[in-house]
Amino acid sequence: MPKLYYLFLLGLSSPLLTSGQTNYVANSPNSLSPGTRNTLVGPGAGNATMSGTFNVFVGYQAGLGNTSSNANSFFGSFSGTANSTGSKNSFIGYGTGSANTTGSDNTFVGFTAGNGNTSGERNAFLGSNAGFSTTTGNNNAFIGYNAGNANTTGANNTFVGNVTGQNNTTGTGNVFIGSTSGVNNTTGYSNLALGTLAGYQNKTGHNNVMMGDSAGLNNLVSNNIFIGSKAGYTNQTGQLSTFVGFQSGYNAVADSNTFVGFRSGYMTTTGKGNTFFGTASGQLNSTGSHNTFVGNRAGPASSNVDDNVYIGYATGNHDSGSRNTFIGTGTDAIAHNLTNATAIGAGAQVAVSNAVVLGNETNVGIGTSSPTARLEINSSVNHDSGVRLSQLTSNSPAQLASYDKLLTVDATGKLVLTQAGHYSIRSVAEWSDNVLMANYELRSLGEVEHYIQLHQHLPGIPSAVEVVEQGIDAAKMDARLLAKIEELTLYSIQLEKDKQQQQSVNQKQQTEIDELKQLVKQLLNKK
């Protein structure tokens, strides 16, 4: 039966031979013992001394150098020509895997795909010239015309698309998907480029993520994330940046910027350390650095502002200064070149530097969730205002010689402006009217004198030491002083009464003296 099969094949080939061609439909074994279970089709297919098994070599000199390899499938002229011991390879197309010697588990499909591979393993190249120059690189997947064409030892790469990763040589761990994405990468590693022309110019940059049409097209450096059509389009030298959104960071070339949103940071060039979130946020900024803009259209009027924080829709649109903070929809500056200015609350606007402005009709609560005044403070301690003026104490000198008005609180705790010297009391008992009542026990002056000798101050009045240590309640002190005045008044009244009584006695005595004088005179005249 084998003899008949061989004669049948020769019979099929005879018409071709008679026409002067050198083609074979099939050929006889190249040796008396070319291994077992091999299929060899084509002139020079397989090796005359090969011992490998389960190989299929179809095409002129396909698997020509094979010795002991097993389970290979080579289809196409010169496919797997140099393979010796590499096994479980599938090469389909002219010149595919032509230089492979010991590499195993490779799949090369397309004209000269994997042509230069020698010992590289577990590679999959699909497309004309895909992985053409790969020699020892492992675990690569190149799909598309010229995909990974120049790769030599680069490993663990995935290139999908027309000429993707075409110039990669030793770069590893890259994923390029999209026509001409990562086309100029040479030694860059751990990059992801997804989209037509994504990461097009990158050569040595590593750890970049570029997703979208032309995202990071001119990037040459490392550690950037560009997501969105033409995101980070111009960047060549800026590192550690993240741009997300159509044309976000389009013109940026500096380091450490984060732009998220449609055309966010679009005009930024050399400005660095910026964070912009929102559609067209920071769009007009060019050279300004260390800014944080959050909100659609949040951003300055000037191109070179620094150290600003804008949070809210359309905040800071007229600001041209630095170190300013605007929080709330439409918060802004209404004067140019301000510094350290803060506006908080929807529509709040600030006009001077070194100022904090809250929004219109805004109440501020400290310790309360429902303030009913412009500023309401709810202290955690009863009868404590919760307010401290560290640079203004009882030891501070007076700033005016006289005062017309002062601030105090009413019964509800509301701060009110009142005339200087106007005090309020809680009840009539706190005033000194009781001194003038009939049942008031007025000390005698002798008792007062004795008290003064012992204490060196009036009864009911604090000593100088007590005032220094405890201070005084002005209203209560006024009541006490008034009580002393009233006591003095009572003493005066008593003295006046005593005086009038004495005058009456004196008058009576004078009358009696005058009468005696008259009697004496009469007696003297009788003599």
3D structure, described in words:
Among the domains are: 301-377; 428-526, no CATH class. Residues 1-25 have low confidence and may be disordered. The strands form 4 sheets. It has a 20-stranded parallel sheet, with no helix packed on it. With 527 residues, the protein is an alpha/beta fold. It contains 4 helices and 26 strands. The longest helix has 53 residues, at 474-526.
Short description:
The chain is α/β, with parallel strands linked by helices and 527 residues long. The chain contains four helices and 26 strands. The protein starts with a helix and ends with a helix.
Which stretches are poorly predicted, pLDDT < 50 over at least 5 residues? Answer: 1-25
Name the quaternary structure: single chain
Q: What is the residue-mean pLDDT, rounded to a whole number?
A: 88
Biggest sheet layout: 20 strands, parallel
According to DSSP, the number of beta strands is: 26
Spatial separation of the terminal alpha carbons: 210 Å
Shape: rod-shaped
Rg from Cα: 53 Å
Estimated helix fraction? 10-25%
| % residues in beta strands | 15-25%
Helix and strand run? HEEEEEEEEEEEEEEEEEEEEEEEEEEHHH
**SSE class:** alpha/beta
Number of helices: 4
Protein name: TMF family protein
Coiled coil: 499-526
Organism: Spirosoma aureum
Signal peptide: 1-18
